[in-house]
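Standup notes
- DV: blocked on the single-chain target, sequence here:
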Amino acid sequence: MHDRSRLALLRVDRFVRERLRPRIHRASEPLAATHWNAAGEPVSFAEAAAGVYTPIAPGDLWGRPWGTTWFRVHGAVPASWRGPDGSLPSRTRAEVVVDLGFTQGQPGFQCEAMVWDVAGRPLRGIAPLNNAVSEAVDEAGDIDVYIEAASNPDVGSLFTFDPTPVGDLATAGTDPIYTLRDLEVRLRDLEVTDLLADTLTLRGLAEQLDDGSPRRADILIALERMIDVIDPDDVTGTAASGREVLAPLLAKPASASAHTLHAVGHAHIDSAWLWPVRETVRKVSRTFSNVLSLMDEDPDFVFVASSAQQYAWIKEYYPDLFERIRARVAEGRFIPVGSMWVESDTNMPGSEAMARQFIAGKSFFLREFGIDTPEAWLPDSFGYSGSLPQIARSAGVRWFLTQKISWNETNKFPHHTFDWEGIDGTRIFTHFPPVDTYNSRVTADELAHAERNFADKGRATVSLLPYGYGDGGGGPTREMTAAVARAESLEGSPRVVHSTPRRFFEAAQAEYPRPEVWSGELYLEFHRGTYTSQLATKQGNRRSEHLLREAELWAATATVRLGIPYPAERLQRVWETVLLQQFHDILPGSSIAWVYQDAERNYAFVARELEELIGDSLRALAGQGERTLIANASPHARQGVSALGAAAADDVELIEPSRAGAAGWVLDNGIVRVTVDDRGLVVSAVDLRTGRDVVAPGRPAGMLQLHRDTPTQWDAWDVDVHYRNTVTDLTDVASIEVDGSAIVVERRFGASTVIERISLRAESRVLSFDLELDWHEKQKMLKFAFPLDLHTDRAASEIQFGHIERATHTNTSWDAARFETVAHRWIHVAEPDFGASIVNDSTYGHDITREQRDEHGGTITIARLSLIRSALFPDPTQDEGSHTLQVGLVIGADVVTTVAEGYHINLPARRVESAAVDAIDPLVLVDNPGVVVEAVKLAEDASGDVVVRLYEALGTRARATLTTGFSFANARQVDLLERDVAPDGSSVSGDGVRLELRPFQIVTMRFSRG
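- DV (later): unblocked, structure below
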């Protein structure tokens, strides 16, 4: 037989385009509309309803960038559409269809709207590809609704990465950017709608089948027969006959060995990205209202949404909508997932902040819905910390889901269902949907890809299918749920079943009880620039985390010692602000300028609030007198002051530099001796105990290096390895002088200036670099380099509750792809008996490599910090302006010293003047410096119990005793949500707790005060 399949497909496509899609609606009638522009930020319904409205019609311009225009729409279903009994024809539905002037960009990245009834109740959202609202037509056929339209500009949904001013309200312009296109009531033909869905399902399936497949031939013949049956002049009248032709093809069941996809409706909504946080609040309301509407139409449809923050916004701003959600949650159809406050970044949040993401998220879902969410849901974050399995499991999480690792540039991840093992040995059952998207549209090519791509065939048969428009919201559509229904059991296709995350994970775990194991971090081989972009926000995060530690510690101490009320509500409000800004497009630096203007204001609020709490608590504890105390919130003693306490202490003495002839200066405190040359570079740093010089011969340390930074794709997101091809060593000096105890170096390059203050404290191993940076470069990255005379193939980097070791070589493609890595407060490079560390107060991006030492052999280790960069998209002004940073080279450091110095540089000792007491005794003490107290606070349930969280920091087994400075009635081990758990390494003894900890183990103790 002649092969006419190509022509058959072309015929079907044209029939769909010219006959079916235009006949979805039998009739239409224009609606009358008036409009009113909100002057500034979004307003309430009551304020909008009181506005003065003027006429508007299709073809008229509306909406300045980031503006809000309210339309009032009037009309009625024409009497001519109704039969003699006043009803609409069978299998039809009246609906209002709105086209606000949608562009070719993606849904969720442009104008959107919410439809309200005249009583002020939100009905449904409007978005591209989802703009028909049957709820706008009442039972009598009358239409009287308000439409709150957001004229959000498309900042760059086509991702050409062109710099644009529209991400900043001040430069976005004021002229209207949209043209109202359609505003009509239409009569939808449900039979034609179903025929279109049938046709698209079979057409898509035919595309995926082999050319020689009998099934494919049957489908094409049936599709052509359907076209022959349909009268092109009466599609409405013959649609049912066309469906009868296709029905037998849709009824043929999937094979017994077909893969099964558990379909869950989803709408990944970025809590900020190419829009500000305030717009996300409205995006969530539109999406959630769409979902509730779809549930009313389709009883099988199930929807999942993460991020307690987004539910909290709905509760605050849309209480009626929240109660509707609550009812569907109780039915098990609207499912909160994820266990976290937001879908946060997991690389940069600190230890306690990462724990609080789960504590705040789970607590909200338990409080509002009575649900203990069992999964972590992070489809889009940019890589996953090796500490996450333990943190999640400590919060009662059983399962983990991600999608982003499918974006790897170099290596294909080998599993889709596996056990992920964290740095302490904790494992969590993990799934990585093989459909390779969290925004599936349930197309045949996506379903086929998921089945082909699934890496665990032969051992597992199920995977998850998250479907719905996402990133900017929107969620599932009628068309998507129709596709799910038709693919439930369809020959040639994997099975697709409406499901829930719990049903999927239970089925997956039951059939695959001993999956393969992946150990360590899930490193994303992409988006490495997110460790560095938007320095001010990263500094705000780091500073806020440590201020929160201090505020909780001193407030808890004041409550226990003096009975002062614990400021739980204020602390919770601050925590929620900090947790929101750890969202995976805020903290990583990949959002528009508006987001960072908001972030800096929020961090300023956080600092003011916490400094007041810290000051009030310390003042109450210290009393009023004539003494001076040093308060030490660090978990390690310093200046003779106990960890977590305060005492009188001498000021830190700084070493005066001495002139080393004409070649530079020497800083010598009897522990280390450092030589700085006349270029302001460190040419020697000797540990006097061993005589070892940590600076590589002929390779000065403290070298600023400027790279061209022009990523291939995602500007603010990416650092590509080719940045190394161009580098300028900043060795020129504008000025160098000694100012008191510091060597002050000024360097100028391009339009920027750096002032370095190099100093050394008495009795310290830390050579300090205080950097003042006035940055005005474009598409450049500034590195800070330390060539270290240390031979090692691995380097340690601090992450949450421990550290991770990564290769410094490039033996494998996995090692080579890890050319930019994340660390928190420190990195450590060592030979078995000697090492050095670099600590910082605000840097996350690093690269650590090896080079030949000299012609005699051996290697040196080059450790570099990524200080700042200047991408052009999505914020063309990224990081311009003044910044201050601190970096320290710890000479002759082991890991114990490194951990302590990492805390010290981030928790400066506080002077408490005019104190009445000699000391403030710590609430708790630990007798092992490798067992670190991370948090001291009062319990979340307002019981007054003291909660102490600590961890083993060195990667070894450890014994320690935790003693308290207060009496307690009982002590027990709890999980992150402060619920009792079986003791694991803890036993109560006298006035304290004896601990036996595994490497990197986290333990939380709860003390009921006596």
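- Follow-up: The first strand starts at residue 25 and ends at 30.
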